[in-house]
Amino acid sequence: MKPTALLLLAATGAEAHYRFSKLIVDGVPETKEWGFVRQSKNYQSNAGVTDVNSNDMRCYQMRTGTTTATVTAGTRLGFVAMSAVTHFGPVSFYMARVPDNANINTWEPAGNVWFKVGEISAQAGPNGQLGSSEQNWPAYNQKEVYFNVPKEVPNGKYLVRVESIALHQAQSAGGAQLYINCAQVEVVGGGSGRPGPLVSFPGAYGRNDPGLVWSYYPVRTSYKAPGPAVWQG
């Protein structure tokens, strides 16, 4: 990429941050921010997390929760991106079950408690190449992102974590920006599955993971998002 193009990316990148501050349940988004979604530290700046070894990798939260959404297993659940997912990269969804004796409003999801339940990753173009456009990244420039809650997830209270990895400045390790938010839900109508593999945040990602580094040239032909495989139930 030409130096002038890199400078342009740096200048525009700071103005194109976002956050996921509303949950979408049964196709209906929340009318106000920070209802089911825990308020995050970027509520004013919209800035992302850049240190994958930080505790901010859990929920990037400023405040714990206040309300919990009731969600039926197997249904489609989404997040509103304010104002859109304005950088290319993958979007992943994780869930963590709140212990029965814990208060969901204050529970801290430390340790190996997270399992991946959805992923919107890259797809190569007709020529087999992978660029940085909407053609290659289905979540890019979308205002809403969705996944299906696995039908076999057991009933109970969960944190649902949405994570958008922006790769536009990730030419070297540490350049990726992660936009993270967590919603509080109670799953009903679930099954008897055993979700896994379970991972921790921080811990699931390493600074030098291939999925956190992007090269514009030579043009790539494949990409794999960091983290474990999606649990299908």
TrEMBL record:
Signal peptide: none annotated. Gene3D superfamilies: 2.70.50.70. It comes from the Eukaryota. InterPro entries: AA9, AA9_LPMO. It is an enzyme of class 1 (oxidoreductase). Its cofactor is Cu(2+). Residues 17-218 form the Auxiliary Activity family 9 catalytic domain. It is found in: Secreted. The keyword Membrane does not apply. Its EC number is 1.14.99.56. The keyword Lyase does not apply. Keywords: Carbohydrate metabolism, Cellulose degradation, Copper, Disulfide bond, Metal-binding, Monooxygenase, Oxidoreductase, Polysaccharide degradation, Secreted, Signal. It catalyses: [(1->4)-beta-D-glucosyl]n+m + reduced acceptor + O2 = 4-dehydro-beta-D-glucosyl-[(1->4)-beta-D-glucosyl]n-1 + [(1->4)-beta-D-glucosyl]m + acceptor + H2O. CDD domains: LPMO_AA9. PANTHER family: ENDO-BETA-1,4-GLUCANASE D, PUTATIVE (AFU_ORTHOLOGUE AFUA_1G12560)-RELATED. Belongs to the polysaccharide monooxygenase AA9 family. This is lytic cellulose monooxygenase (C4-dehydrogenating). It comes from Podospora bellae-mahoneyi.
